[in-house]
Amino acid sequence: MNTGGKTPKVAIFLPSLDIGGVERVMLNLAEGLNKAGIEVDLVLTRKVGEFVQKIPNGVQLVDLRSPRVLTSLLPLVHYLRKIKPKALIVAKDYTNVVALVAKMLSSVPTQLVITIHTTPSKHFRYAKNFRERVFIRLLARKLYSRADSIIAVSKGVADDSAKFFRIPLNRINIIHNPVLSEEIYSAAKEPVNHPWFLPGNPPIILSVGRLTVAKDYGTLIKAFYKIRQQRQVRLVILGDGEEKQELLRLIRLLKLENDVWLPGFVDPPYPYLARASVFVLSSIWEGFPTVIVEALALGVPVVSTNCPSGPNEILDNGRFGVLVPVGDAEKLANAILRTLNNPPDPERLKERAKQFSIENVICKYLSILGISSDRNDIELKN
């Protein structure tokens, strides 16, 4: 695409920068686009959240100052009419719907790109909010086909989205999340101020993510109980969420208080991850679990449920990590034990992780956006 020498502007729209995998991914995307020579506006419904301090240098923050996503509709229309960015990239179903309506109301030529980061059939089935479970689902099915481009973060998400939202599969582009950044490697070198992580201590099984139903940490704790009968190990789960009290109750019931630690949200998690003996993902569903890529990048062995969607794609159907059925504590325990006893070559895992570099992902986004990546002023940097 010939932009006449003018740098194109791309906007990324999110509700906030609260802690979350999608928020981290979109910050990586903003940084990657900016380093590729693209002007980037990060448009927030409201400027709140722990990740506000992580907005990359060079990315412009636009605060719509709205209490909710719905009330940001008119401010977003005003922004689109005033700025007319080349593209607006959006994540999360509610935000996708509001952005689609804003695009229609604003009558601007901005290319609207919606991204789907979870397996929708599972996400909406387990949604506790009636508005999301019914209202947003109906609007998404009606409006998603109006997007200029649709991006799913894995093949599994694409297949499920096509069926669930009733969109032709050939309209959905598959682009994995931008994961590998310099922060992973630099932060991994930082010390961990906890005695369990000192040399000479028992191996640590680590998991990272919000304490939600989707993550199924109950099965992981039950698997750990079985492992603990056979060898000295410890379990650390980094994250916070609504299931925490139930998980603590299960830990007490199984008398694992001395061997399981739930420290809450930890950012960045990489110093802990780098010192784990095995990383475990026990989820019922995912979209594209970036933490698996991060574990591979640090040479940490992975055991994961073969849940929809993403783990089997990242691990290449088990070539780079062990896949087990969802909800099976016995098989999960056996897989973790096998991995602890016979870990894979770390260098092989690190090589696999390179497939998910920010550079590779940004090139694919530029192609979708119609921006040539071979222009002289675009240079992808790490």
Outline:
The chain is α/β, with parallel strands linked by helices and 382 residues long.
Describe the structure.
With 382 residues, this protein is of the alpha/beta class. It has two domains: 9-178 and 357-369, Glycogen Phosphorylase B (Rossmann fold, 3-Layer(aba) Sandwich), CATH 3.40.50; 182-355, Glycogen Phosphorylase B (Rossmann fold, 3-Layer(aba) Sandwich), CATH 3.40.50. Helix content is 39%, strand content 16%. The chain has a seven-stranded parallel β-sheet, with helices on both faces. A six-stranded parallel β-sheet has the order 10-9-8-11-12-13, with helices on both faces. Helix 1 (21-35) crosses helix 15 (358-369), helix 2 crosses helix 3 (93-106) and helix 11 packs across helix 14 (346-353). It starts with 8 loop residues before the first strand and ends in a 13-residue tail after the last helix.
